[in-house]
Amino acid sequence: MSPSPRCSLGVSGLDTVLHGGLPCGHLFLLEGQPGAGKTTLSLQFLMQGMKEGERCLYVTLSETAEELREVAASHGWDLTGIDLFELSSVEEVLGEGQTQSVFHSWEVELGQTIRLVKQEVERLKPRRVVFDSLSELRLLAQDPLRYRRQVLSLKQFFTPLNATVLFVDDLTGEGRDRDTQLHSICHGVISLERFALEYGSARRRLVVQKIRGATFIAGYHDFNIRTGGIEVYPRLVAARHHIDFVHRAMLSGVGQLDALMGGGFIRGSSTLLTGPAGTGKTTLALQYIAAACARGERCHVYEFDERIDTLLTRASNMGVDLPGLMAEGLLQITQVDPAEMSPGEFAWNVFCAVQEQGCSMVVIDSLNGYLSAMPEEKHLLLQMHELLSFLNQSGVTTFLINPMYGLVGSMDTGPLNVSYIADAVILFRFFEAEGRIRKAISVIKNRNGKHEDTIRELFIDGRGLRVGEPLTGFRGVLTGTPEFVGGHQPLLEDRDA
Known about the structure:
Helices cover 33% and strands 27% of the residues. By secondary structure, it is an alpha/beta fold. Helix 5 runs antiparallel to helix 6 (134-141). The chain is elongated and about 100 Å long. Mean pLDDT is 86; it is low at 89-106.
């Protein structure tokens, strides 16, 4: 049998998770606690059907039609063209003024509710239906067996109509076995979750529990509700994305700096720039950014720690015109607010920068900011590793800036496994000479080939970034307690003078 055609939900990220959408003509369960986003997603599902010329019906047992229109208006939507069938009061089911005494009231209400819904569906013959919500049906049924029978009868009723149906369940009411009952009846299940952090905005995520006879991206996927609807950020799976590219060297324009890396960084590699604050890590990354933009390549900088205005001023002082590169469309700088952005959203933004904008170089400043600003998130380092694997397989050169804890002496890189997180590692240190604080740079790891094993002086001024000769006259620079053991040869700025 050929697979069923897919029915788009109107949310591009969720359609990506479902590999095109829901299989058409089946019944699906959309579940989640109140406030998780079920109504918004349901309305997007129907509006997408309306755009495709399909008849759409929203059956509401809990919310009024006016409340649904208010939700739509908050997103700038117009529900004109979508049929709203409201059953939110007993009078609408039994008829105003009608009473009975032979049966229990809930038996009559349940039967009448199902009958009225079926009549409306038969009259309109919709291709998409949202039934909101099953919790009201559960309360009317009063009994788990009767509730299951009614859901089964609705499924059997919708099946020959070839309609795609969303049953909405807000997970309220009694009965711990309700989840397994509905999951076994429905063709697919999508669960929405909303949870609050100790600081920052609430996080939302979804998981596709099952879709019969169809593939999808398993696991949790972060999402947000913004003006305009739901945005879903599919979990990044690096193995699904790979392109062929030439492993050429990415040069900085500073000969001695490229010589440290044995001829430059290799395209599709990740480099960790680590050292105390103020040693020139971001400046070195900007040097490579400027060189890449000069070659016509697109670059993206993600700032967790520093304000963009400060970054632009610093680059201007070293002769790099970042605003000009941004105006040309070669450079984009994004200020990341971790209190508002989830790890999944961040990874998806990087993914879109590569896939849609053709970005070839990415700077993440800083990795400590990423890890420390989301303390309640789990598996952050694993998510970063998956992101780096995707970037490497896409031929993107990545710079990760990681400030060490402390300024001089013994320092700590934090919760990082250097061998696990990056292909190359460049270490920056302060050292003292002739009563002045100076900077040193060295390459301590490079998976992609040879590199210099020398420790060189690094100097940054209005002329840009310069690398001096090896510091052969010093011992203990890397430990932060250097000792001068050489002659009185001038250092970098002294020779320039």
